[in-house]
């Protein structure tokens, strides 16, 4: 990849302009793959999960034939949202307003007082469907029904992990954060560790920022939608935990070189994929507006390891909750600072090249 000598970040309006956020909604959140769930969260017929992002709401549901489908969370009568949160609808999805009901495959099957309608074509009034794809137990949704599959769009990334079986992982903990910052500031923060010595002294002791390797870069022209690399453990450390060590076995299939690394990958637009030798941490981003981003942080461990009587994930969760909160603080400071009339983006050093790469990706996408 050719890197320009002078790397300058995004100007103020990219973080604080409503029109730019509207463009981002159309380009990224409505036309790209969003990580929404795990297959085991939708284990039984009728199980559902609602997702809200950038002013849109949709839900995933397990159908009678075992598939997972996704629909916009909008009744075809007068627009009421159909579902909230997560749970089970049983065998039918019923609108809470006028009790229009839909089969789990989205077909309109019931309308009270249907004889009083001048014209009612049930076949044309099914729920609006979204595209769904799965990979290694993770469920992705795309609002563009005709999008290429996730496994096609991210084939290079997918092929990097064929030696590991993420389907065997189970979530031990989810922490939800409400970050008062533009989603791109959160992404930029994940894309560099130049800030690690002053902001994350514990992390930097376990994986010094000087030991990072940045190997993958974004490209809007090539539709290359992931970037990342890895950081190397300092001597004596084996995982990102409170002690920097772990008694847990490495994930099945972990290679020798992986025992000394934590892999960090951004999947545009809403996934941070952080693979440790003994667990996988996933952040998903759910922008509410240009000024606020909900971030979910999930911790996944091998289900056999979790079945052991002495299993505990607390050593990993505790340190990452501390690191996360440190990150959100500087993200919020940056969001407020970039809103100043005196903010002018400054130069970036070489070890912020993936921040610059992301910013160039955004510029190219919005051009």
CATH architecture of the largest domain, by name, is Alpha-Beta Complex
What integer value in Å does the Rg equal? 22 Å
* Mean pLDDT over all positions: 96
- The total count of helices amounts to 10
Helix content: 10-25%
Distance between the termini: 21 Å
- The overall strand count is 17
Q: What is the makeup of the main sheet?
A: 7 strands, antiparallel
Q: Which sequence of SSEs, written as H and E, runs from N to C?
A: HHEEEEEEEEEEHHEHHHEEEEEEHHH
CATH H-tier superfamily of the largest domain: Naphthalene 1,2-dioxygenase Alpha Subunit, Chain A, domain 1
Q: Strand order across the biggest sheet?
A: 1-10-9-4-3-2-5
Name the beta content range. Answer: 25-35%
Question: What does it look like?
Answer:
There is one protein chain. This protein has helices at residues 13-16, 18-29, 150-153, 155-159, 183-190, 196-199, 201-206, 303-306, 314-338, 353-366, and strands at 34-38, 47-53, 56-62, 68-72, 86-88, 92-94, 101-103, 108-110, 129-135, 138-142, 169-179, 212-216, 226-232, 261-267, 271-275, 280-289, 292-302. With 367 residues, the chain is of the alpha+beta class. A seven-stranded antiparallel β-sheet has the order 1-10-9-4-3-2-5, with no helix packed on it. Strands 11-17-16-15-14-13-12 form a seven-stranded antiparallel β-sheet. The chain has a three-stranded antiparallel β-sheet with strand order 6-7-8, with no helix packed on it. A hairpin with a 2-residue loop joins strand 9 (129-135) and strand 10. The chain is globular. It starts with 12 loop residues before the first helix and ends with a helix. The mean pLDDT is 96. InterPro entries: Rieske_2Fe-2S, Rieske_2Fe-2S_sf, Ring_hydroxy_dOase_asu_C_dom, Rng_hydr_dOase-A.
């Amino acid at each position: 990849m050719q890197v320009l000598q002078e790397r300058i970040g995004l100007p103020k309006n990219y973080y604080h302009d409503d029109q730019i956020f509207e463009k981002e909604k159309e380009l990224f959140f409505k036309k790209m793959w969003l990580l929404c769930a795990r297959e085991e969260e939708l284990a039984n017929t009728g199980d559902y999960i609602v997702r809200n992002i950038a002013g849109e709401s949709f839900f995933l549901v397990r159908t009678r034939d075992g598939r997972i489908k996704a629909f916009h969370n909008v009744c075809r009568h007068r627009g009421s949202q159909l579902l909230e949160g997560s749970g089970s609808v049983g065998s039918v999805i019923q609108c809470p307003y006028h009790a229009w009901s839909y089969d789990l495959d989205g077909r309109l099957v019931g309308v009270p007082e249907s004889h009083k309608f001048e014209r009612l074509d049930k076949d044309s009034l099914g729920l609006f469907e979204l595209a769904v794809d799965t990979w290694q137990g993770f469920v992705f949704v795309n609002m563009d029904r005709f999008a290429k599959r996730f496994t096609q769009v991210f084939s290079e990334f997918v092929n990097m992990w064929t030696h590991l079986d993420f389907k065997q992982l189970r979530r031990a903990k989810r922490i939800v954060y409400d970050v008062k910052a533009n989603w791109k500031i959160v992404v930029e923060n994940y894309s560099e560790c130049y800030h690690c010595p002053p902001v994350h002294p514990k992390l930097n002791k376990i994986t010094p920022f000087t030991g990072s390797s940045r190997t993958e870069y974004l490209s809007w022209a090539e539709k290359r939608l992931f970037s990342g690399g890895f950081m190397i453990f300092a001597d004596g450390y084996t995982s990102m935990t409170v002690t920097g060590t772990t008694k847990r076995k490495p994930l099945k299939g972990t290679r020798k070189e992986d025992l000394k690394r934590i892999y960090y990958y951004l999947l545009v637009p809403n996934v941070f994929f952080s693979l440790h030798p003994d667990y996988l941490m996933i952040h998903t981003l759910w922008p509410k507006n240009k000024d606020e981003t909900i971030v979910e942080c999930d911790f996944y461990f091998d289900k056999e390891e979790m079945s052991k009587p002495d299993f505990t994930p607390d050593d990993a969760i505790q340190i990452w909750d501390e690191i996360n909160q440190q990150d959100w603080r500087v993200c919020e400071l940056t969001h407020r600072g970039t809103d100043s009339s005196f903010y002018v983006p400054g130069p970036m050093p070489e070890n912020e090249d993936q921040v610059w790469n992301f910013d160039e990706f955004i510029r190219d996408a919005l051009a």
